[in-house]
Design a protein that fits this description.
This protein is of the alpha+beta class and about 450 residues long. It folds into three domains: about 220 residues, 3-Layer(aba) Sandwich (Rossmann fold); about 80 residues, Uridine Diphospho-n-acetylenolpyruvylglucosamine Reductase, domain 3, CATH 3.30.465; about 120 residues, 3-Layer(bba) Sandwich (Phenylalanyl-tRNA Synthetase, Chain B, domain 3). Helix content is about 40%, strand content about 20%. The protein contains 15 helices and 21 strands. It has a five-stranded parallel sheet, with helices on both faces. Strands 6-7-10-9-8 form a five-stranded antiparallel sheet. The protein has a five-stranded antiparallel sheet with strand order 11-15-18-19-20, with no helix packed on it. α2 packs across α8, α6 crosses α10 and α10 crosses α12. The two termini are about 45 Å apart. It comes from Geomonas diazotrophica. Belongs to the tRNA(Ile)-lysidine synthase family. One of its GO terms (molecular function) is tRNA(Ile)-lysidine synthase activity.
Length: about 450
Amino acid sequence: MKDLVAIVRNQHLFAPGETVVVAVSGGADSVALLDIMTRLADERLKLIVAHLNHCLRGAESDTDEKFVADLATRYHLPFVAIRVDVASFAAAEGLSLEDAGRQARYAFFHEVARRRGATGIAVAHHLDDQAETVLIRLLRGAGATGLSAMKPSGANLVKRPLLKVSREELELYLNGRGLTWRTDETNSDTAILRNSIRHELIPVLKKYNPRVTERLAATAEILAADEELLDHLTVSSFDRLAFSANDEVVFGIEALLQEHRGLRLRLYRHGLHELRGDLMCIALTHLEAIDRLACSCRPNAGLKLPGDLRVERCYDRLSFTCAAPSAPRQWEQDVPGEGSYRLENGMTLTVRRVERPDDLATGSKRIVHLSADAAPFPWLVRPFTPGDRFTPLGMTGSQKVKELFINEKLPLHERSRVPLVFSEGEIVWVAGVRVAQKGRVTSTTGAVLRVEILDITP
């Protein structure tokens, strides 16, 4: 039997002493993951068990929650759970139960990570899940980016340490360790695409190649390596061919058309992502429309894309812009002292006095420590306005907050929601983005304030 602990350790996904949220449903995969994570003794990980009750199976869902709670107690680990009526959420948002459940889970895991200062979220996706994902995306018409499927270290803190381990190997591990798990009967419902692929399509494919799951996962790994190379080439070419200014991405058409079409399409994707922060609803047809615009003989023309994105051609310039939302209502919030304050943008700011920590690094941009003497109350919190400046921690000169947003690649539509925290008329924190030099904690600081911004809206 494979040494699964060694397989996870040798991927070096977790730093020594790291705080990690472990997503545990109670199924075989996540129970095995939790046990393996507790055996990474050299890493000295601080683990938090997180469970989302989907409320889809009545008493069975509640029993799953209790099973995971008991599991956390057995390992002497903190346990966090939440109940979400996924069926109602799916109906309200027009989503499938699978998509609604996934959105609810990851929103919950990230909220737990923010609250606990975790820098990793471990999920139990394994080799068979990877193979199924490749087939799902192939059936839906994905290109190489989609077919590269899941990565061991994904975006937004997510880690997948079991991608090289099969479902069968995980069950062998559990049996060898004398561990039990819960079985979700809905996993047999072939009306769900993933279940249909697992129970119907893959058995057929195994008639042609008994190791088809391993081959599909290996294909995804090869494509992921290719994607890494192509991403590097795209970013390098983007830096050479495009410039960003005033919330606009601009290409010179003459130089752009010297590049291969495949690279041009990737450059368009990159430019759109730079503006909006995601590529939701952007399909190949949109990228091809941009390319036709770039290749057109018309000196002036434009395209409107989903999500208020617009592409304009003006002679030798191809510019990408994201229409700014209507100007947000200006607001101000007074913070006279410690406490919890609900802000008008839907966020919550919490302030409390703590002992000076030995290590000021919180592992999260949403939590900072400030000197009560250097940043005295009352504070003022308000959104960004043009012309705001501050001195970032560790710097001597001031910087425009707008430049900070650009450097941090913060999408235009998110900038108006970022609260600025002021003390004595100076910014002490661009909340969730960067702390200022003013208010810094030094070796001589007495009272220390722990300040956290909670984003409780989607």
